[in-house]
């Protein structure tokens, strides 16, 4: 609690992230409910005699995208709180980028619903999507809060960078090693959202009835489905293993992570292989490409971190600012505000 109240900027940062999550989820849920009501109307037997199966599947996917970004709002709030607790400069940059990407996607949502409406089978009478009422408020809100959060991240960046600089005693070698560690940790946190959510979503699709599987994927062998279930079950364990092994500089754990993580990369590559159909879900493809890039980067960065073991970073973790060996995290000091310094972790 003391860290959350360390300065006016930390308080504003946390408060803004909570407001963003609450209002963002509310506005996205409104869009989701609107989309679901439209889908139910065209599914009615009295709506039209034409084939609406393609439009139904497309709307199902749009609703799935709504669900993903509802989850994202909760994820960004957790990431913001974690950033304050850890005083992580790398996470500040990531939060800024993710918020602007999310706000940009809200514009894509408008294009998607317009394209869906224009491609709908003629003769189906549905009400106007009311984009100005449902989608535009979400766009304005997310862009406004992305800008506000970007400003707050900028204000916190200098303070956090100064704290880290003091912890590592300004040692340039340790600074590079610690930066590598921070990047790896944020990659693991991003994996929780991008990889785990996507893996579970694919699990649900694979577990659906045969019609649904053929709607979303080309033919999926049963052996691969089993492989995917196993890999999905391992992802959470591997993320925890990597984090703990890195913190303790446990080489065996990192070797195990590096070996098993290859299966995760292969799994997502195979999902991509089976995802190309006549009615391709482009958002899912884009999400998969990000997941594959993220999983590969995590694996490569894990090797970088492993190479830095026994080079002094563990001593920093075990050192309090004025009491070496106190066993405190190098960025856990509550008394250092940074004094507005602009020293950063380069």
- Net shape: flat
Mean pLDDT: 79
Structural class by sheet pairing and helices: mainly alpha
What characterizes the major β-sheet? none
Please give the count of helices: 10
Strand content: under 5%
Number of domains: 2
Model description:
The chain has 346 residues and is mostly helical. The protein has two domains: 168 residues, no CATH class; 160 residues, no CATH class. Helices cover 75% and strands 0% of the residues. It contains ten helices and no strands. It is flat and about 70 Å long. The C terminus is likely disordered. Keywords: Membrane, Transmembrane, Transmembrane helix. This is 6150_t:CDS:1.
Give a topology summary:
Layout: H1 8-43, H2 53-86, H3 89-118, H4 131-167, H5 172-207, H6 210-216, H7 222-248, H8 251-273, H9 282-307, H10 313-317
Helix pairs in contact: 1-2, 1-4, 2-3, 3-4, 5-7, 5-9, 7-8, 8-9
InterPro entries: UPF0658_Golgi
Transmembrane segments: 12-33, 92-116, 136-157, 178-206, 226-245, 252-275, 281-306
Region (Disordered): 323-346
What labels would you give this structure?
346 residues; mainly alpha; 10 helices; flat; UPF0658_Golgi; membrane; transmembrane helix
Summarize this, please?
The chain is mainly α. Helix content is 75%, strand content 0%. It folds into two domains: 1-168, no CATH class; 170-329, no CATH class.
